[in-house]
Target: CRAL-TRIO domain-containing protein
Amino acid sequence: MPGDSTSALGDGVQEKLKALGPDWTEKAERELNESPEKIEESLEILRTLLADETSLTVRPDDAFLLRFLRAKKYDCKKAYTMLHRYYMMKLDSSELFRVPRPSEKMHILEMQAQTMLRGRDHNGSRVYIFRVEKCDTSLVTIEDVFSTNVMALEYMVREPETQIAGLTVLIDMTGFSLQHHAKFLSPYYARRTVDVIQETFPLRFKGFHVINQPFYFDAVFAFLKPFLKEKIRQRIYLHGKDMSSLHNFINQEILPSEYGGSQGEFDNTWWREDLLKHEEEF
Model:
């Protein structure tokens, strides 16, 4: 193709591709088979598939569609299926998947139950932490917590680097109680969570690391297993209280001190403030 191979792409995508830098560009090429030519070709194919879709109105911009292509490594048919499921999910379960504005969820974020770490793990993945103990179920509903996590995913998927390297999730089960938290494991919510991870949300989920789980968690996990594909099962790691085991996957340098890290105590203030700065984007 003569000239600049990114010239047919939208201005926003062109700028983001140029801003990635050589390391991220090489990672995208190596792991996703990405190139400017591949992006242009795949966007055209995906738009052709969407042109036949009469039941949904889809955001048409390159940057949005590119999320789905990267999530499925440029398999256009799989990207189209994921896009369709993404919109159907929001239509069928709007109480869970409507993306709230950050200001609507400050009361939940101020519980210090969730955060996105500033640093990335050794594979370049974003790291998201969820602390069960800090989630006071007497004050918030499961719908509140679920939609706040969806908001966090929508925040992170805006980053081209995260689209490329994916997301690692750390779940701290300290304080988990069947009396207070069993509803998080109901078939309805378990199924919706698995749908997000496996089929619906345009992110590559690279690992799920569970720490401080109770002795009966194996039984809880057995309940979830039938919903999970083998690929996801293999990415779930149960570390218990062994922080050195966790550090084999997530660098100590980016972790809070509660998890043997060097970043001080857990505090999501910076993340809450950054979410509010992007309020209008939600």
Q: What stands out?
A: DSSP finds 14 helices and five strands in the chain. Residues 1-6 have pLDDT under 50 and may be disordered.
